Amino acid sequence: MSGHDSQPTRVLAAGVYPQVWLVASVTLGLGAGQSMKGVVPPWTVALCVVAAAVAGVAGRRARHVGGAAAILGAGAVSAIALSVVTGSSWSVTLLVVGLSCGAPWLGGRYLHQQDALADEAAQRARVEERSRIAQDMHDSLGHELNLLSLRAGAIEMDTTLTTTHHAAASELRVGASAAITQLAAVIGMLRGDGPVDWGPTRPDIAELVRRAADAGMDVTLVRNGPEDAALPAARCIHRVIQEGITNAARHAPGSAVTVTIDSSAQETKVTVTNTPPNTSLRRTPGSRTGFVALQERLQACGGTLSAGPHYGGFRLIARVPHADAR
């Protein structure tokens, strides 16, 4: 910071503290009261108005009353002491300090309490609206997922289908049931019922890749280095791989996907690469919301994310630091 910036910054920072404002108000009030000796000069009235405005701001910004009470008490003692020294009327000075500092400060405190009540009411309204939205999500999405699970169960029981089709239907039914369970956990969190159980204690990356392969994807997992990343990093790594495989299935159907995990003591590097898609298969348009959410998840873990085209396909690279190495 340069010398030109430091002084204005100190002045603005001093105004943030309500005690500073109140001390300034009491000082102005004392000056105005000491100047009223038999007459009331017009400039003392202006000082009282400024002191009242400053005290009102201090009262509205104050979070605790202890410091303000000490300052006002010191102002009253100072009013009496100055009057004894200067021979002025202590009652006039005390009255000026009380009316121009104490009363406006109390008014500011009242406004502060009204602001706090308004914020509390707004917070309650947000919680109620969030609970209503959560209930709507539970009713609509839960209904659709239950129907999906029932349809998958019916397909699983169809004796005219092959064993492969039965296995796929079983995977679909199990996935829908798991989605219903996690949906209920998320809805509970939105309604304030408690923290979300995001799944297993340590996500199984091999199982994630196996399920994608069972669904018909050409996916390969390559591991280099240790596999014992700390739990937050492990969950973040699992989420990166999940998003990479999902994007490949959605935007590059028929492509070959390679998941490479390079781990060290300090961090884990995850690379998800897919070859060019099969142009005869229909692609699903994307909203990029999953990519944005993944960026936010990595930032929360202290990691980084980069993604872009790669030899006609796509490559996603994420670096996740280990919690015990930071």
Name the features.
326 residues; alpha+beta; 5-stranded mixed β-sheet; 9 helices
What would a concise description of this structure say?
The chain is an alpha+beta fold and 326 residues long. The protein is 65% helix and 12% strand.
What does the model show?
With 326 residues, this protein is of the alpha+beta class. Helix content is 65%, strand content 12%. The chain contains nine helices and five strands. Strands 1-2-3-5-4 form a five-stranded mixed sheet, with helices on one face. The longest helix is centred in the middle third of the chain and has 67 residues, at 90-156. It is elongated.
Sequence-ordered SSE layout with sheet pairings:
Elements: H1 3-16, H2 18-34, H3 42-61, H4 66-86, H5 90-156, H6 163-190, H7 205-214, E1 218-224, H8 231-251, E2 256-263, E3 267-274, H9 289-301, E4 304-310, E5 313-321
Parallel strand pairs: 1-2
Antiparallel strand pairs: 2-3, 3-5, 4-5
Helix pairs in contact: 2-3, 2-4, 2-5, 3-5, 4-5, 5-6, 7-8, 8-9
Q: What sequence of helices (H) and strands (E) makes up the elements?
A: HHHHHHHEHEEHEE
Alpha-carbon Rg, integer: 34 Å
Question: Approximately how much beta-strand content do the residues carry?
Answer: 5-15%
Strand order of the largest sheet: 1-2-3-5-4
Residue-averaged pLDDT: 79
- Major sheet, described briefly? 5 strands, mixed
Count of DSSP H/I helices: 9
Pairing-aware structural class of the strands and helices? alpha+beta
Overall geometry comes to elongated
Give the N-to-C terminal Cα separation.
29 Å
Amount of helix: 55-70%
Low-pLDDT stretches: 1-15
